[in-house]
Fold:
Amino acid sequence: MTDHNGSQPQDQRLLIRGLHVAPAGKHEAEILQGIDLSIGQGEVHAIMGPNGSGKTTLAYALMGHPAYDVTGGEVLWKGRDVLALSPDKRARLGMFLAFQYPTAIPGLSVASFIRSALNAKLQGVDKTADVDPTDPMKGGISMRDFRNRLREKMARLRMDEAFATRYVNEGFSGGEKKRLEMLQMAVLEPEMAILDETDSGLDIDALRIVAEGVNAMLNPNLGVLLITHYQRLLNYIQPDVVHVLAQGRIVRSGGKDLAVRLEEEGYGPILREAGLETNVSDEALAVPKAPGEDEGGELAAARPTAGVAG
Structure:
């Protein structure tokens, strides 16, 4: 683990400087108004903020979602201009996005989906001629090696092997959809993962399983940008830095104690300290409690004493 002052080489850090983002074709309705972040490999950064603050916009903009236009700033990763790359090239460069609301793909099995994604990633950002998924002789990872890899990752995530034969997200529960996102992440082995409200819609048991999956993958080569609305996820995944995003910009950064303060006081006081007007009451700005949490904001279920080994 490194410190967070940029001592890590720049090509090992995701550098976001002065990022401005607006809806595609509606640049006057700017959502992100100058985001500055530096996230290194081996670090976990959590972004918290009220609904509508721009958290998902940040995740989508970083991965090149066509619904958003970057109107200013830069994003650098591995010495490359991320904003000049298509979404698939960003993924080939080792970036990964776990969706808040994953899409179902009827007729496509989980195994086929992940193998196709892995072979595409093996081509590299500049598509080396050594790997061509359309060529039987250069098709990337062999079926046998892929099966072994998939089984190993599923065992690590404590998933039934029958999961691989199901169609992608078709008929999946909320927890199963998020576990599939974790399985993709485990197989693809990205170096910078963006997790967009992975805890959204999960009960406590599903939350614990997903968090253990994330903890199982943490390693010195993986940087994580963890976007969440609830402090509860941070009871399981320990962040190195917590950032508060409000009204399109980072208004406060700190340690885990910052997330605890948000749980106790809501976002209102911090927004006012940042000089931001709040047009709603403190109650509306408070961090909502999830089912199963007690009055102190703690999870009623017993928390694990440590994450799963990576």
User: Anything to note?
Assistant: The longest strand covers residues 13-23. The chain is about 30% helix and 25% strand. Residues 10-285 form a domain with the Rossmann fold fold (CATH 3.40.50.300). Residues 20 and 72 are 5 Å apart (CA to CA).
